[in-house]
Amino acid sequence: MGYQVNDTSARTSNGWWLSTSVIVYIYSVFDCYFTSPVVHGMRQQRVFWPRNAPKKAPAKRVVLIVGDGLRADLLFNINPFPNIPDSPLSVAPFLRSIASERGAFGISHTRVPTESRPGHVALIGGMYEDVSAVTKGWKTNPVDFDSVFNKSTHTFAYGSPDIVPMFARGVSPEDKVSSWCYDEGEEDFTKDAKELDTWVLARLKETLYNATQHPGSTLDRSLRQEGVVIFLHLLGLDTTGHSYRPFSKEYMQNIIHVDGIVQEVEKLIDDFYSHDDAPENESRTAYVFTADHGMSAIGNHGDGDPDNTRTPLIAWGSGVRGPVPDSSPNSTHDAYSKPAWGQPLTDLARADVQQADVAALMSALLGVDWPMNSVGVVPGLVNGPGYLSESDKRGSEQMARIGVVNARAILEQYRVKHAIKAKHHLRYKSFPPLEPYANGALPPGALELRELERLLAAHDWQTARQQAQHLIDITLEGLGYLQRYDRYVLRFIVTAGYIGWMLLSALHVLHTHVVPQNSAPKTAHVPGVSALDILTWTTTLSTAGVFAYQRSPWTYYLYAGFPIYFFRSILREGSAMYDVLAEEMDWGTFPTPEELLAWGIGSFATLECMTLAYTHRELWTVLFVIVGVVWPILSWPKGFYSQNKRLGLGWTMSCLVSGIFTVLSVEKTESLGLISVGTGAILTLGLAGDSMVKAELSGRPFSLSSVIHRPKGSVQAQMALIVAALVTTISSVRSLQNKEGLPVLNQSAGWIILVLSVVLPALLASSVSSSTSKMQQYFLAFGPLFVLLSISTEGLFYASFSLTLFLWVEVEARLHQTLQKAGPNPVAPKPAKNIGWRAEALSRTLSDDESERPKATKPPVRRLSRGLTGADVRRALFFLFFVQVAFFGAANVASVSSFYLEPVYRLIPVFNPFFMASLLIFKIVAPYVMLSTTFATLNKRVALPSFALFKVALGLTDGTRLMMCSEESADEFYMHTVMSLTFFYLVRDTGSWLEIGQSISFYIITSLLLVWSAGICAAGDWLMKGSVLGDELSGTGDGLDTSRKID
Asked: What is the SS3 assignment for 144?
């Protein structure tokens, strides 16, 4: 079928496909790395005893107490709060006494994400949700998989409305879980969070009292049956840690409070069940105390600090072993616990587990069916000591039978997943250690299970335990194999899509900015179906057929559709483009090998530096030094610095100051002093901007002495809001620090100031419509935001970053003016002789959109557009640099550690994750308003049409292939594509939450960067609509001379 390469609709279609593919491929990272492990259809598994030798379950009931956000070291350590006067040597004496005298203890190692929902899913369901599950929210989402609660005879749950309802819904029967939750409004970060835990204790007391007062009632019978679970979720520690941080006096007091609650709970439970347990002359209640996640020193969880993944685990009561001495040669302690935990804990065995193992422990204690999605392993199956008691004569037999059931439950999951894959995948290859036997007549693991049953019948308990552990290990490996089964195919598809995206974009760049207009490649229209069309349809239908047979998600069709479309377009357009290049190539303009090598090294160095800077933030500082110091020394024209000393010195100083922020630690503490200094910097720059606007209006040079003055009009109103924001912030911070709560007046004032500051530029139109005036308005508009939501240096960064952007425009304008005076006007008529297609392309204006519109009859006007130069490539690269610095300057968005909640409490004191996240995102986006207005102004100041520099950034050379076409080019698009692919392969689904979160963030940021850059350009044009340059305002403009006097 025929086509015409320069057809506008075809280019629009390509652009739509390219933009859409960015969004679609961002989602592919979740299909590739983070798919849900939940499957259904498994058979129930539980411990069965021989009829002639029955044995009771180790416990009749289990009490699970979760101290949300509790660090293990602060619970176990001796003198964990040395900086707090009169702090006790042990903040949890009751729990320590249990661990040292009558229970088992250790560390429960959590997995990512270290958030409340996935942590509780691991504890109660015995499985690890995929990382994307954290986006399911914290509210009343039902748990769509099996759990210990669902296997219990009845569960009584008390605690936060963010956790308890998840497990109260979706169980069978529906009334199996009875739950009590406090109101969401009680989760006030400005109040004493210990009251939340006190509320939980009060509801438990109330339940037991009601049952005691009404013996034989439904409540009483439900509590007294075997297999009951009582769940207490204590949120106070998490709330206090976020508000005051873990090493605060408040956090210490909350641990003491929790320790007291645990002591009282044990007494309440034992007293209530004393009559039931009297015949056995011992309590039949087992207790498990742990945490869903820890907390870092800065009051966050999820930033990769090991203290986020190390949580305490203490078990005691019925069926749980007592303390055992630590073996000297092979100590269970490490440098983390010894000597910090002190004696006697360091003399006793420490039993570490994985968080999902807690669900297996509770199932074993209750003797109920195993949660069907659990991957937990009962502790101490082989490598002891564990947590279950083996003191009686049948202890080893009990552990062997529990281990076999544990292996059966996990193997059952593998069998179901294996059957699904085998049924719906072409040429399926099973996990080698679990190959089906007898050509599929026997399911995977059948012979291993037979061997385990033989060992049980032979009473070879120790060998049975070892074989069960071995089967569990290989089955868990098999589950991982099946979880990753489609990953390699999906990686290939996404990689092909990115490569096709890159090549098709390169062809578009060649056609738009390099190939001469009179040489546009065209092909004649050929009726009928071409071989390319047949190949395309064959590939499409075959791929769709395979996906349909395999019952692949609908997103797989999208992933495969893009590379098919891209390569079809490449093959269709590439051949015609090759003919034009071969015919029109001007070898006289071809770069020398030295130039190619230099550009290759430069491009590689830039790519590597940008990539490494995502994990080594100090590289942004190095780039600031290069931009602010090295660039002026090596590249500025001779005599330029001496003629613009103040501007040059200001540029260097602003770059060096801005570079400080990218090496500052992301761990910050609330500082009213730094917030006040940042406010002063914002006000000072506001005054300087007002003076510059007045200087433009009067046509006189700007002077530093004029900065100190009294502003008027809208500027005065905006600066008044900034001062009001500071006063409100100081009052709110002091009130919160004094635990007096957030006054309603302060909260209302904060919201009013924030909203007014944003809408004020639209309500109070400036009397001056210059670009400087508008930039000043937008700068001051976001000033209150960086006061109200600052914790430390954010306001200073905002001021420094904005000043650097403004000076960048001034430097580029002066350089442009100098080059215009030194060289010929680039807006020259098309040469009559053949000067080579490359030189002709470089002399072409970028006003593509204007040239395609119908010509209207208008009086001649001055044209402020020109051709491209090498300096425009530098400006595009600087733009890319500032786009990324805005992300990594005030806050490292690749790490959740930058999302401090303290400033958000000044506006939203009650826990509301979505509104809180919105405020934090708004704070991150604000610097881009300044970047967008700056970039729009820069286009005008250097006499380029809208989107010109963005087109340069997009149209720079695509690898070494397109380097041959331009001596001045370095490829931003190529870099983004390669960076996106690099980070796609570096995405991790294991490791710390920081490592996983960073890998996902890096991939998303690099993928969206070009789309984000286009949005910045569009926003800048819209925000600066109607503004004029200073020389036009004062009537001194002369076309391309767009600099202003500063010295």
From this structure: coil
The residue to which tokens 């269709």 are assigned: 572
- Within 291-382, strands assigned E span 310-317, 353-354
Q: Given phi > 0 = left and psi -120 to 50 = alpha, else beta, which region is 829? A: beta
E strand or H helix at 103: strand 103-109
Q: Which two tokens stand for residue 467?
A: 């074989």
What is the dihedral sign for C-alpha 445, 448, 450, 453? negative
Q: What is the pLDDT of residues 468-489, one digit of tens each?
A: 999 999 999 999 899 888 888 8
Q: How many CA atoms lie less than 13 Å away from 90 in the CB half-sphere?
A: 15
C-alpha 796/C-alpha 209 separation (Å) is 58
Q: Contact 269/231 with Cβ under 8 angstroms?
A: no
| C-beta separation of 106 from 131 below 8 A | no
Q: Which residue has the higher pLDDT, 832 or 511?
A: 511
Which residue matches tokens 């490569």?
499
Radius of gyration for the alpha carbons in the chain, expressed in angstroms and rounded = 34
- Coil, helix or strand at residue 286: strand
Q: What is the pLDDT of residues 242-295, one digit of tens each?
A: 888 899 999 999 999 999 999 999 999 999 999 888 777 788 999 999 999 999
- At residue 659, the 3 state secondary structure works out as helix
| pTM, entire model | 0.76
Which is nearest to 273 in space by CA: 226, 320, 315? 226
Q: What is the pLDDT of residues 932-976, one digit of tens each?
A: 888 888 888 887 766 656 655 554 433 323 333 333 333 444 445
Contact 537, 474 (CB under 8 A): no
Nearest to 838 by CA among 518, 584, 508: 584
| Pairwise CA distance, residues 894 & 999, whole Å | 8
**Measured distance CA(20)–CA(25) in Å, rounded:** 9
Name the least confident of 325-334, 581-590, 993-1002. 581-590
What gap in Å lies between CA 583 and CA 586, rounded to an integer? 9
Q: Could you tell me which of 560, 537, 580 has the C-alpha nearest to residue 486?
A: 560
Average pLDDT across the chain, whole number: 79
CATH number for region 63-374: 3.40.720.10
Residue 353's φ and ψ, nearest 5 degrees, are -140, 165
Torsion angle defined by CA atoms of residues 479, 484, 485 and 491, in that order, rounded to the nearest 10 degrees? 180
Residue 150 CB-density burial (10 A; 0-12 exposed, 13-18 middle, 19+ buried): buried
Mind listing the pLDDT tens digit for each residue in 203-235?
A: 999 999 999 999 999 999 999 999 999 999 999
Report, as an integer, the average pLDDT of 684-712: 76
